[in-house]
Design goal:
alpha/beta, six-stranded mixed sheet, 4 helices, disordered N terminus
Length: 195
Protein backbone atom coordinates (compact mmCIF):
# COMPACT_ATOMS: atom_id res chain seq x y z
CA UNK A 1 0.00 0.00 0.00
CA UNK A 2 1.34 3.41 -0.92
CA UNK A 3 0.71 6.21 1.56
CA UNK A 4 1.05 9.78 0.38
CA UNK A 5 1.56 12.56 2.85
CA UNK A 6 1.10 16.21 2.05
CA UNK A 7 2.89 18.55 4.38
CA UNK A 8 2.27 22.28 4.12
CA UNK A 9 4.62 24.88 5.55
CA UNK A 10 5.12 28.61 5.33
CA UNK A 11 4.59 29.00 1.58
CA UNK A 12 7.87 27.28 0.79
CA UNK A 13 7.26 23.56 0.83
CA UNK A 14 3.73 22.66 -0.12
CA UNK A 15 4.12 18.91 -0.25
CA UNK A 16 6.53 16.35 1.11
CA UNK A 17 6.61 12.61 0.93
CA UNK A 18 9.06 9.88 1.88
CA UNK A 19 9.19 6.33 0.72
CA UNK A 20 11.28 3.36 1.76
CA UNK A 21 11.62 -0.03 0.21
CA UNK A 22 11.17 -3.62 1.20
CA UNK A 23 8.88 -4.12 4.04
CA UNK A 24 7.02 -1.78 6.27
CA UNK A 25 7.43 1.94 5.92
CA UNK A 26 6.64 3.94 8.98
CA UNK A 27 4.88 7.25 8.74
CA UNK A 28 5.03 8.72 5.24
CA UNK A 29 4.85 6.03 2.63
CA UNK A 30 5.97 2.53 1.94
CA UNK A 31 7.50 0.92 -1.08
CA UNK A 32 8.88 -2.24 -2.54
CA UNK A 33 12.14 -2.21 -4.40
CA UNK A 34 15.79 -3.00 -4.38
CA UNK A 35 16.07 -6.34 -6.16
CA UNK A 36 17.86 -8.46 -3.62
CA UNK A 37 17.48 -5.64 -1.12
CA UNK A 38 17.11 -6.10 2.58
CA UNK A 39 15.82 -4.09 5.48
CA UNK A 40 13.43 -1.27 6.10
CA UNK A 41 14.05 2.46 5.83
CA UNK A 42 12.19 5.69 6.58
CA UNK A 43 13.91 8.44 4.59
CA UNK A 44 16.30 9.51 1.83
CA UNK A 45 19.97 10.55 1.09
CA UNK A 46 22.24 12.59 -1.29
CA UNK A 47 25.63 12.18 -3.22
CA UNK A 48 28.68 14.19 -4.27
CA UNK A 49 30.70 14.83 -7.40
CA UNK A 50 29.32 14.55 -10.95
CA UNK A 51 26.98 17.13 -12.35
CA UNK A 52 23.35 16.42 -11.41
CA UNK A 53 20.73 15.66 -14.00
CA UNK A 54 17.94 18.21 -14.38
CA UNK A 55 14.59 17.83 -16.09
CA UNK A 56 12.75 20.95 -17.14
CA UNK A 57 9.88 21.98 -19.38
CA UNK A 58 10.86 24.37 -22.15
CA UNK A 59 8.28 26.96 -21.05
CA UNK A 60 9.82 27.37 -17.60
CA UNK A 61 11.47 30.66 -16.72
CA UNK A 62 13.94 29.09 -14.24
CA UNK A 63 17.21 28.43 -16.11
CA UNK A 64 18.51 24.87 -16.00
CA UNK A 65 21.88 26.16 -14.80
CA UNK A 66 20.13 27.62 -11.74
CA UNK A 67 18.38 24.32 -11.03
CA UNK A 68 21.69 22.48 -11.32
CA UNK A 69 23.31 24.91 -8.90
CA UNK A 70 20.50 24.27 -6.43
CA UNK A 71 21.02 20.49 -6.74
CA UNK A 72 24.70 21.00 -5.92
CA UNK A 73 23.70 23.05 -2.87
CA UNK A 74 21.21 20.34 -1.90
CA UNK A 75 23.92 17.69 -2.11
CA UNK A 76 26.37 19.71 -0.03
CA UNK A 77 23.71 20.37 2.63
CA UNK A 78 22.74 16.70 2.70
CA UNK A 79 26.31 15.57 3.18
CA UNK A 80 26.92 18.18 5.88
CA UNK A 81 23.86 16.82 7.67
CA UNK A 82 25.19 13.27 7.39
CA UNK A 83 28.63 14.32 8.63
CA UNK A 84 27.01 15.98 11.67
CA UNK A 85 25.34 12.62 12.37
CA UNK A 86 28.72 10.86 12.23
CA UNK A 87 27.96 9.28 8.84
CA UNK A 88 29.95 9.20 5.65
CA UNK A 89 29.01 11.50 2.79
CA UNK A 90 27.03 10.04 -0.09
CA UNK A 91 28.47 9.71 -3.57
CA UNK A 92 26.49 10.45 -6.66
CA UNK A 93 25.34 7.41 -8.63
CA UNK A 94 24.81 8.13 -12.34
CA UNK A 95 21.98 5.62 -12.76
CA UNK A 96 20.15 6.86 -9.66
CA UNK A 97 20.67 10.46 -10.86
CA UNK A 98 19.11 9.72 -14.25
CA UNK A 99 16.17 7.98 -12.58
CA UNK A 100 15.69 10.83 -10.08
CA UNK A 101 15.41 13.25 -13.03
CA UNK A 102 12.75 11.02 -14.61
CA UNK A 103 10.90 10.73 -11.31
CA UNK A 104 10.96 14.51 -10.77
CA UNK A 105 9.21 15.03 -14.12
CA UNK A 106 6.71 12.28 -13.30
CA UNK A 107 5.74 14.02 -10.06
CA UNK A 108 4.20 16.84 -12.08
CA UNK A 109 1.71 14.23 -13.38
CA UNK A 110 1.29 12.21 -10.19
CA UNK A 111 2.75 13.39 -6.88
CA UNK A 112 3.18 9.95 -5.41
CA UNK A 113 5.65 7.12 -4.90
CA UNK A 114 3.62 5.35 -7.56
CA UNK A 115 4.77 6.03 -11.11
CA UNK A 116 2.24 7.19 -13.73
CA UNK A 117 2.18 3.58 -15.04
CA UNK A 118 0.81 2.44 -11.66
CA UNK A 119 4.00 0.71 -10.46
CA UNK A 120 5.89 1.49 -7.27
CA UNK A 121 8.78 3.83 -8.00
CA UNK A 122 11.30 1.86 -5.95
CA UNK A 123 10.59 -1.43 -7.71
CA UNK A 124 12.88 -0.24 -10.53
CA UNK A 125 15.99 0.17 -8.37
CA UNK A 126 18.39 -2.79 -8.33
CA UNK A 127 20.90 -3.15 -5.51
CA UNK A 128 21.69 -5.29 -2.49
CA UNK A 129 20.60 -2.87 0.20
CA UNK A 130 17.33 -1.19 0.95
CA UNK A 131 16.43 1.83 -1.10
CA UNK A 132 14.39 4.94 -0.38
CA UNK A 133 12.87 7.92 -2.12
CA UNK A 134 12.21 11.41 -0.76
CA UNK A 135 9.96 13.67 -2.82
CA UNK A 136 8.85 17.27 -2.39
CA UNK A 137 7.07 20.02 -4.31
CA UNK A 138 7.47 23.75 -3.73
CA UNK A 139 7.55 27.06 -5.55
CA UNK A 140 11.17 28.02 -4.87
CA UNK A 141 14.39 26.84 -6.50
CA UNK A 142 16.22 26.53 -3.20
CA UNK A 143 18.26 23.39 -2.50
CA UNK A 144 19.12 24.44 1.05
CA UNK A 145 15.47 25.03 1.97
CA UNK A 146 14.49 21.59 0.63
CA UNK A 147 17.05 19.91 2.88
CA UNK A 148 15.89 21.98 5.86
CA UNK A 149 12.29 20.92 5.25
CA UNK A 150 13.26 17.26 4.94
CA UNK A 151 15.38 17.54 8.11
CA UNK A 152 12.29 18.81 9.95
CA UNK A 153 10.26 15.76 8.87
CA UNK A 154 11.20 12.66 10.91
CA UNK A 155 10.61 10.22 8.04
CA UNK A 156 12.62 12.22 5.52
CA UNK A 157 15.40 12.95 7.99
CA UNK A 158 15.66 9.26 8.81
CA UNK A 159 16.23 8.46 5.13
CA UNK A 160 18.87 11.16 4.84
CA UNK A 161 20.69 9.82 7.91
CA UNK A 162 20.38 6.12 7.09
CA UNK A 163 23.87 4.59 7.52
CA UNK A 164 23.10 1.82 5.01
CA UNK A 165 23.04 4.24 2.09
CA UNK A 166 26.29 5.04 0.30
CA UNK A 167 24.97 6.75 -2.84
CA UNK A 168 22.17 9.01 -3.97
CA UNK A 169 20.54 10.28 -7.13
CA UNK A 170 19.08 13.79 -7.24
CA UNK A 171 16.48 15.20 -9.60
CA UNK A 172 14.57 18.43 -9.96
CA UNK A 173 11.85 19.43 -12.41
CA UNK A 174 10.22 22.84 -12.88
CA UNK A 175 6.87 22.88 -14.65
CA UNK A 176 5.48 25.75 -16.72
CA UNK A 177 3.49 27.10 -13.75
CA UNK A 178 6.61 27.48 -11.61
CA UNK A 179 6.06 24.46 -9.38
CA UNK A 180 9.30 22.66 -8.62
CA UNK A 181 9.51 18.93 -7.91
CA UNK A 182 12.47 17.45 -6.00
CA UNK A 183 13.54 13.81 -5.73
CA UNK A 184 16.20 11.94 -3.78
CA UNK A 185 16.70 8.23 -4.54
CA UNK A 186 19.01 6.39 -2.15
CA UNK A 187 21.01 3.22 -2.65
CA UNK A 188 24.62 2.09 -3.01
CA UNK A 189 27.53 2.88 -5.30
CA UNK A 190 26.62 0.05 -7.68
CA UNK A 191 22.84 0.54 -7.67
CA UNK A 192 21.24 0.73 -11.08
CA UNK A 193 17.75 1.37 -12.35
CA UNK A 194 15.99 -0.85 -14.84
CA UNK A 195 12.95 0.71 -16.47
Amino acid sequence: MNIQHLFCTAALITALSACSSLGVGVGIGTGFGGHGGIGVSLGGNIPLDKSPKVSSNQGVTIPQTRLQQELNIELNELNQYRTQQGLQALVRNESLDAYAAVRAAELAQNFSHTRPNGKNALSYVRNFVETAENIAQNNAADGKAIIEQWKNSPEHAKNMANPVFRAVGLGVYADASGKIYWVQVFGEEHSFVRY
